[in-house]
Amino acid sequence: MNVFKPFIYFSALLVLGCVTVGCGDYNNPLMTPSPASVARFTATLLPSNEVPPVSGTEANGSGTAAVTFNLTKDSNGNVTAATLDVTVSATGFPPGTALTASHIHGGSAGVNGGILVSFGLVAGEVTFPNGSGSFTKQGVTMTIDQANSIMANPGAFYVNIHTAANPGGVARGQLTAAQ
């Protein structure tokens, strides 16, 4: 029987350890699942918002952008990961218009700024055979700092779309928080 004593003690400790882990402190951030959340933004894209304003055959176009940030937060509400989904719809462009790029830029209304987040659009990937169309990109990579900056002051950032005729941007709109 002495041979089984260590086995019995080991089994008792194993069961006790499993019970202790099962009764863990769920207020401990290491054991609390990360709450996911979203932040939504919209932008009205107009050629007249570009700096300088677009002229010529593409000046009559317009569009909208709906941007959703997919956020993972820790138990204190701090963003720990972020991606975005975007849908851009456009109308009023000349038939056959092809987009070359689309981004979020830093810059207030009337001020050009550098690219902050590229939507990963490849030149010619999106065309508007009848002058209208849309595209959606999901899971676009962004940094925590980019997400936090935009959420803190969306109006300091803009979405635009680019074409070969207007490589600096054909239609632009400042981000606004959406419900």
Q: What coarse outline follows from CA principal-axis ratios?
A: elongated
Structural class determined from secondary elements:
alpha+beta
Biggest sheet character:
5 strands, antiparallel
Strand content: 35-45%
SSE pattern, N- to C-terminal: HEEEEEEEHEEE
Number of strands: 10
Q: Briefly note the CATH topology name.
A: Immunoglobulin-like
Computed CA radius of gyration, to the nearest angstrom: 25 Å
State the separation between the terminal residues, measured CA to CA: 70 Å
Which consecutive residue ranges, at least 5 long each, have pLDDT under 50?
7-31
Quote the average pLDDT. 87
- At the first level of CATH, the class is Mainly Beta
Count of domains = 1
Structural write-up:
The structure is a single chain. With 179 residues, the protein is an alpha+beta fold. It has one domain (36-177): Immunoglobulin-like. It is 15% helix and 41% strand. The chain contains two helices and ten strands, in the order αβββββββαβββ. The protein has helices at 5-22, 144-152, and strands at residues 36-45, 62-73, 79-91, 97-106, 115-118, 127-128, 133-141, 157-163, 171-174, 176-177. A hairpin with an 8-residue loop joins strand 4 and strand 5 (115-118).
Which key features would you list for this structure?
179 residues; alpha+beta; Immunoglobulin-like; 5-stranded antiparallel β-sheet
Briefly summarize what is shown.
The chain has a single domain, classed as Sandwich (Immunoglobulin-like). With 179 residues, it is of the alpha+beta class.
SSE order and pairing:
Layout: H1 5-22, E1 36-45, E2 62-73, E3 79-91, E4 97-106, E5 115-118, E6 127-128, E7 133-141, H2 144-152, E8 157-163, E9 171-174, E10 176-177
Antiparallel strand pairs: 1-2, 1-10, 2-3, 3-7, 4-5, 4-6, 4-8, 8-9
